[in-house]
Amino acid sequence: MGAYLIYYIIILIIPIWAQFKVKNTFNKYTKVQSTSGMTGAEVARRILDENGLYDVRVLEHNGFLSDHYNPANKTVNLSTDNYFGGSISGTAVAAHEVGHAIQDKQGYAALRFRHSLVPVANIGTNASWIFIMIGLFSHLSGMLLLGIILMSLGVLFQLITLPVEFNASSRAMDQIVTLGIINNREEHEARKVLNAAALTYVAAAAVAVLELLRLLFIFSNMSNNNRQ
C-alpha cells in the first residue's frame, strides 16, 4: 500500500512540477522585452517568409499558452500575449510554432508519423481504460492485456512527440539567431523558455510510461495467478 501511495504521489508531482516550471519561466521572460521590438506575430511572419511559407497564416488564438501549429489549415496560432507582445517568451514560442510549420513543409518523418498516430492514439487512449477496469475488477487478464495494448498507442504518441518538439525548438533557435531576431544575451533566455516548455512533454511521456509499466506488472502477476 505504501509503495502504491508513493507511486501515485510521484506521477501527480511530475506534471505539476513541469507546469509550474514552464509557467514560472514563461511569466519571467514575458516581462523581458526583445531588443528587436518585434511582436510574436511579426517574428512568426518573418521566419515563415524567409522559409518560403507564404501560404501559412499567423492567427491570434485565445487562451494562455495555447500556441500551436495546425497542419490541417496551415496556420500558426499564437495566444494573445504572444501575438501582440514583444517579449523574449513570445519570440521563442512564436519561433517554436513556426518550427513545426517548417517540419511540415520538409516532410519531417517524426511529425508525419505523429500525425498518422493521432486517430488511433485518441481511440486507444479513450477506450483503453474501459478494458483495463473490466480486466482489473473481473480478474480477466485478456481484457487487461487488450486495454494495455490500446493504452500503448497513446504512450507511443507521447514518446514520438518528444523528438518532434525538441526538433521544432532547435529549428526555432537556429532561425531567430540566424535572422538576427535576438542577440547573444537573449539567445540564452529564449533557450530557457523553450527548455521549460519541453518539460511538459517530457513529464507527460514519463507519467504515461510509468503507468504502462505498472499495468504490465499487474498483468504479469494476474497471469501467473491464473496459471496456478
Care to describe what's here?
Helix content is 77%, strand content 6%. By secondary structure, it is mainly alpha-helical. The chain has one domain. The chain has a three-stranded mixed beta sheet with strand order 1-3-2. A hairpin with a 4-residue loop joins strand 2 (68-70) and strand 3 (75-79). Helix 2 packs parallel to helix 4 (88-106) and helix 6 (141-178) runs antiparallel to helix 7 (184-227). The longest helix has 44 residues, at 184-227. The chain is elongated, with a radius of gyration of 21 Å. The two termini are 24 Å apart. The mean pLDDT is 93.
Q: State the separation between the terminal residues, measured CA to CA.
A: 24 Å
Count of domain modules: 1
Low-confidence stretches: none
Judged by helices, strands and strand pairing, the structural class is mainly alpha
| Most strands sheet | 3 strands, mixed
- Averaged pLDDT: 93
In short:
With 228 residues, this protein is mostly helical.
Keywords:
228 residues, mainly alpha, 3 strands, 3-stranded mixed β-sheet, elongated
Question: Secondary structure elements and their pairing?
Answer:
Elements: H1 2-30, H2 40-50, E1 57-61, E2 68-70, E3 75-79, H3 80-84, H4 88-106, H5 109-138, H6 141-178, H7 184-227
Parallel strand pairs: 1-3
Antiparallel strand pairs: 2-3
Organism: Heyndrickxia acidicola
Keywords: Membrane, Transmembrane, Transmembrane helix
Protein name: Zinc metallopeptidase
